[in-house]
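Hi U.,

Before I forget, here's the chain from the pilot set. I'm dumping it here mostly so it's searchable later in email.
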Amino acid sequence: MPETPEIPRQTAAELNEEIRQLVRSGLSNAAGAEYQRLVVAWAEALRAEQDLAA
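Structure:
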């Protein structure tokens, strides 16, 4: 039986909005790690959503 893709806690759209808010507030050195975490989570959410749509 094929594995069911895990649905992330947040959608790609929600994560994208968080990224946009972070960028609007200015990316300090401390925010860099959070930005990277959000981008990785966004990419994973996007893949999961595309897998579900296929």
